[in-house]
Structure formats: structure tokens, C-alpha cells
Amino acid sequence: MRRILIGLALALVALPAPAWAQTRDENVARCVSAPDPASPDLKIGACTALLQSGQEAANNIPIIYYDRGNGYRKEGLYDQAIADYSQAIALNPNYANAYNNRGIAYEYKNQRDQAIADYRMALKIDPNHQSSLSALKRLGVTP
Hints:
Blueprint: H1 2-14, H2 24-31, H3 40-53, H4 61-74, H5 78-91, H6 96-108, H7 112-125, H8 130-138
Helix pairs in contact: 2-3, 3-4, 4-5, 4-6, 5-6, 6-7, 7-8
């Protein structure tokens, strides 16, 4: 019985630590990585851990929601992505990239009108936002 318990303890030690057990720097690296080498699951977990820590500066919170939204979008979880982009926008109404990426998520959900509105809002904030300009052109809509 003792051998079994020791074996089980050793097996548990060998498992990778969950995102919440990582250091802040490791979570930041996984959450806010660009380009995105982290898997979407690791990105989502790391961003969630940062949000739940309650230790992030207020100006970092919209960025964390934005990056977690990117993870959800890569997983095909568009409703969760839209919710996170919306939270980022609520915290920073001038976040052009959040509008753009929410537009992408809406487009994946075949919600064209919402996508166009978000692309236009991104362009209102940043008239040179290339991704939004390209998206509207692709959709045959004038900015």
C-alpha cells in the first residue's frame, strides 16, 4: 500500500502545474504572447488566472480580456470571445483591436451586421486600422 501511495505522489508531482499555479510572469507570457505560441487552452487558462488574481493594474485588465478572447476565438468559442472583447471595450472604449476582433468573431458566427458595425467602430478610433479596412473591403462595404 505504501508503494502505491508513493507511486501516486510521484506521478502527481510529474504533472504540469495548472495555470493558476504558474508564476505571474509565466501567466503573462502565455496570456499576452504575440505571436501566439501558447495553445489556446494555455492562453485562456493563463489569462483567467491573471484576472482571478486581483493583482493586475487596471490598465492591464482590458488587454487580458482581449487576449483571452483571442484564445476563445481560436478554440471556436465565439460567444465567449465576443463576451471578452465586449468586456475589454467596456473597460477601454477606444480599444480598436478589440472592436476589430469582436467583428471577426461576429463574422464567424455569420452575424454580418454586427461585424460591419465593429469594423467601422475600429476605423472610427483608428482610421488606418488595416485589418478592419481589409475586412470591410472583403465584405464589399465602404468604410
